[in-house]
Amino acid sequence: MTLVSRRSALIGTLGLAVAGCDRITTSPTVRKVLTLGEKATLSGQRLVTDRNALAPEFTTADLSPRFRVNGNRMPASADYQAHMASGFSTWQLEVGGLVRQPLRLSLAQLMSAPQRTQITRHDCVEGWSAIGEWTGVPLALLLRKAGISSNAQYVVFHCADDFSGMRYYESIDMIDAMHPQTILAHTMNRQPLSVAHGAPIRLRVERQLGYKQAKYVMKIEAVDRLGGIHGGKGGYWEDHSGYQWYAGI
Ligand SMILES: Nc1nc2c(c(=O)[nH]1)N[C@H]1C(S)=C(S)[C@@H](COP(=O)(O)O)O[C@H]1N2
Ligand SMILES: [Mo]
């Protein structure tokens, strides 16, 4: 596909995807951002793009009136169901793998750490987008607190939900893991994250497509290679449907 047709396809897809949502399609900010995205695409792929650049941030006026739910909307496991019933009061996030000090953190601990709030656009590969406000703990902070090893190359997110018995998982490299907009969000549009959107916490890795935004994150594992994780391609959809591991936008 040529760059120009790719660009029309992108704009076409987004236009189509938000057909029910005039506010987004007509928003001058979004138009501007799409143009910026074009430029980024034209300037090249992963290695040429500045991986540390920030994803565009928006204002509350740009928030989508409706933010679609996609993929699983409620993990079926007995464990998760019990945590959900108790409002995640005894739930703990595990941080392990190549770290000096493995951690187990309650939701209250995560919420009392320094926080970041950002209004960003979520782009699903299936062709819809939505702008939402996310608040959570920077992943970099947790990884530093756990004393991440200099051998770590990737961070894997293990989730509570499954597709036909296989739990969802995703992974990112250290550049994205340490990126200032990469957060574990517990709050969406100023409300506690709903179960449908990934309670109690979900990843926001704003420079990448929707399927990288792991919901229901139970465990974070620092690794030096992805080969040992399930099918070896770094994520559920990467292993099962040929999705690209690097889904940069
Ligand atoms: N654990 C988990 N994370 C997931 C998914 C999922 O099914 N399970 N779906 C992915 C996809 S394809 C998208 S587009 C977004 C959807 O997030 P939302 O339901 O909050 O819109 O979550 C991503 N993360
Ligand atoms: Mo998606």
From TrEMBL:
Tree of life domain: Bacteria
Residue span(s) of domain Oxidoreductase molybdopterin-binding: 89-224
Protein name, as recorded: Oxidoreductase, molybdopterin binding protein
Organism annotation: Novosphingobium aromaticivorans (strain ATCC 700278 / DSM 12444 / CCUG 56034 / CIP 105152 / NBRC 16084 / F199)
